[in-house]
Amino acid sequence: MPTLSVFLDVPLAPKTRGRLLDDFQKDENPNKVYLAYEVCMTGNEVPWLPPVVPKTLMKLAHDPSQSYEYLPEHGLEAFIHVATELLVGRHSPAIVENRVGGVHTIGGSGAIRLAAMFLKDWHRGPRVVYLQPSQKEQHGFIFQEMGFIIREYTFWDPYQLASDTGKLFDVVEHAPERSIVVLYNPGSFILPRKRWIKLAKVMKRKQIFLFFDVPDQGFISGDPDRDNKILRYFVSQGFEFFCSQCFSNSFGLYDERIGCLIAVALSNEALLHIRSQLDSYARYMWCSPPALGSRVITTILSNPALRVEWKKSLRGVVENIMLTREKVKEKLRLLGTPGSWEHITEQDGMHSFLGISVDQVDYLVTKKHIYIPKTGQFNLTCINNQNIDYIAQSINEAILAIDSPGSHLPR
Amino acid sequence: MADRDNPLPPKPSAQRLGREKLPPPVKDFRIDAFGAQPRTGGFRALVAALGLAMPSSIFADVPQAQPVLVFKLTADFREDPDPRKVNLGVGAYRTDDCQPWVLPVVRKVEHQIARNDALNHEYLPILGLPEFRSNASRIALGDDSPAIKEKRIGSVQSLGGTGALRVGAEFLRKWYNGTNNAATPVYVSSPTWENHNGVFGAAGFTDIRTYHYWDAAKRGLDLQGLLQDMENAPEFSIFVLHACAHNPTGTDPTPEQWEKIASVMKRRFLFPFFDSAYQGFASGDLDRDAWAVRYFVSEGFELFCAQSFSKNFGLYNERVGNLTVVGKDGDNVLRVLSQMEKIVRVLWSNPPAQGARIVATTLSSPEHFTMWKENVKTMADRILLMRAELRSRLEALGTPGTWNHITEQIGMFSFTGLTAKQVEYLINEKHIYLLPSGRINMCGLTTKNLDYVAASIYEAVTKIQ
């Protein structure tokens, strides 16, 4: 029966990601380097996996008491419990008062999705979300799908080559009341205490809804508790907010989609109501979340010896990143590369801005086969002993080759 | 330096208490400006100490959402202290000892996976693990499927059958029958699995209707009603069809009846969206359970098939599902999949690996595949046995009514035909838990409780009219 396809009018969706990786994979140059991997890499050019993880996976696979019974809609309770403790601290008054908890989700994305659906239905305020450009593809697309308007803000000042958390003041002053502000990676925020107190006051006055996103707790300072100090301050100041927690980076288990949406409320009753609504959204999307990843994390975090082992691995990785930063800066200095490179060591975490212009990035990609996105944001863990000299030399070359007034400045 | 075990003392702000001398301000926030949380006190205690009213929650208007009925049933069952209690509402397979069963092939394969030192744990692609997707669709459509040969199928790894339904529903709402036509009627069977309504509703469809399915009087399929509803449905309506082992009735159309259904659907341009959660689990035979889907493909339909591997692999909590897309040609499927990728990106971004790895490894190895088929047959056979045994006991007791539907129905569930009052009696008086619709899960029956359940049903039917 020859009929037309019912899909005839479906347009081909343009591919938004993956161009850089495609080009890198097709490149045959032996020196090629890819500095934009999402995951944390090791010096051997494989993704980082703390040894305690495969050890735990093996143990779980041989556990005869383990069955595959459905989890509840909100996921593994024990996992939510350890995730909450990791986030707000074991002794948090919010835990004592039973007003913090959440839902085990499909990674950080699943958490953002549930939060966005909840805010679409229940947020009493404008449908406006403020987020950083790096969050456009995660938070941005999801919130847009829910009908929110996205407004971008950034801490990175390409002229000062520095990150200025104080930009939040501008955001909050100009945002309409009750706007939603995504605070991505709060562990990397730097402000003097007095200014935090002031900022919190302004946020309270304007009833800004805070949506924290913790993508890799522990990757900033090497200590998961230190990384969450700001978030815990907001808990202590009586803020109600959401936080999406992603465990992929901190445990190297990207493919098991382990996340949590944590809600901090003022009362247990409110928390229970929120959870029930989040459950109902999950019911019609994934019914209940996958178990394995959450069981691995719960096992590690609940066992003192394994927990210590994990923290040690994490600290090791973070120390390597800090060391790489120092090395890159030093090599550029030794080469006499023009300009200031302090920003290399002043930023923290896995990803940083290189602080070079778009033309200079293009030079690196096309002439030196070093692949970085146009923003100049790159993954420190992709740099290792084998490629660091080539990278430093290439950056030096790019700066010298494309040296015009304001050449450090991205357009 | 403060750490988790030695918190700094709390630092209240001068404006709050005004009396204490504050320590000098610390310039860099990162260096312990706020310390760890105090063990007692905190915000609420402070507010109380100052005699202030608690600020109202911004979530004050959020009501409690309704829980799902079957969860309440399970909770009630768990709390029931009666030793004779039986749970016939459970949605998972149970052994004759009423225990969950991890398939031997799953145990074997998960050990194999855990032993693999070189396993890469990076994100899966958005559409999922390639080996899983191709094998999963192949299982549904058959090795010799013309659609596969003609390269006009696509697959999207999903979070269980629910996830597959959701991806398909979101796509259809966005791109089917116009652009963003949320008013396209979606027909689900009467009765059906409750989640069907929820998933299509959540995907944005505004007109969800039922089609006749269960004939309570004759305890079978109401084919006339079904076909009439299809005749009357607006063209291009979407019909959610159960591929086999209909949930909750256990009543499937015969091949001849499927042929009639397909004929009407073709003529009226109705879109078939199959839900296949029990392939292999229903009859013990993978191909037999996929007959309806394959027939529709051979008739040239474009269709979706949401597959779940929860039951037939016993992998309930690893959320293994697949949405199979069959189109007229490869180009159409390519475009459809490109849009589905965008949809997945804002649902869960990319799917979990473990369950998909287990299924892919099993389906692509002849040795494991054979073992899996045996395991599936074990489960299906036990259910068939329980059906036969329950029916024979009910008939031996002279239970009023006819009970052949118990063995004629197929899959995990049976629509007993018990009334709501009779169900209440069973729960309250006999501690036998089942849904108000009279649906029972055959897996809850064992050789040990068959007599008690049969006797209790006899009592319920004779005492309560």
TrEMBL record, chain A:
Cofactor(s) the protein requires to work: pyridoxal 5'-phosphate
Family stated for the protein in its record: Belongs to the class-I pyridoxal-phosphate-dependent aminotransferase family.
Signal peptide (from-to): none
UniProt organism field: Vombatus ursinus (Common wombat)
Annotated GO MF terms: L-aspartate:2-oxoglutarate aminotransferase activity; pyridoxal phosphate binding
Name the record gives this protein: aspartate transaminase
Residue stretches making up the Aminotransferase class I/classII large domain: 49-395
Gene assigned in the entry: GOT1L1
Main enzyme class: transferase
Keywords, in A-Z order: Aminotransferase, Pyridoxal phosphate, Transferase
Gene Ontology biological-process annotations: aspartate biosynthetic process
Subunit structure: Homodimer.
EC nos: 2.6.1.1
GO cellular component: cytosol
Automatic annotation (TrEMBL), chain B:
Region described as Disordered: spans on this chain: 1-25
Tagged with keyword Amino-acid biosynthesis: yes
First-tier enzyme category under EC: transferase
EC number(s) reported in the record: 2.6.1.1
Superkingdom, natural source: Eukaryota
Localization per record: Cytoplasm
Keywords: Amino-acid biosynthesis, Aminotransferase, Cytoplasm, Pyridoxal phosphate, Transferase
Primary localization class, coarse: cytoplasm
Pfam families attached to this UniProt entry: Aminotran_1_2
Single GO MF descriptor: pyridoxal phosphate binding
A GO cellular component annotation in the UniProt record: cytosol
GO biological process: aspartate biosynthetic process; cellular response to insulin stimulus; fatty acid homeostasis; gluconeogenesis; glycerol biosynthetic process; L-aspartate catabolic process; L-glutamate catabolic process to aspartate; malate-aspartate shuttle
Database matches in InterPro entries: Aminotransferase_I/II_large, Asp_trans, NHTrfase_class1_PyrdxlP-BS, PyrdxlP-dep_Trfase, PyrdxlP-dep_Trfase_major, PyrdxlP-dep_Trfase_small
Cofactors (names): pyridoxal 5'-phosphate
Catalytic activity: L-aspartate + 2-oxoglutarate = oxaloacetate + L-glutamate; 3-sulfino-L-alanine + 2-oxoglutarate = 3-sulfinopyruvate + L-glutamate; (2S)-2-aminobutanoate + 2-oxoglutarate = 2-oxobutanoate + L-glutamate; L-cysteine + 2-oxoglutarate = 2-oxo-3-sulfanylpropanoate + L-glutamate
Aminotransferase class I/classII large domain sequence ranges: 84-457
Further remark: In eukaryotes there are cytoplasmic, mitochondrial and chloroplastic isozymes.
Assembly with partners or alone: Homodimer.
Family: Belongs to the class-I pyridoxal-phosphate-dependent aminotransferase family.
Identification of the protein by name: Aspartate aminotransferase
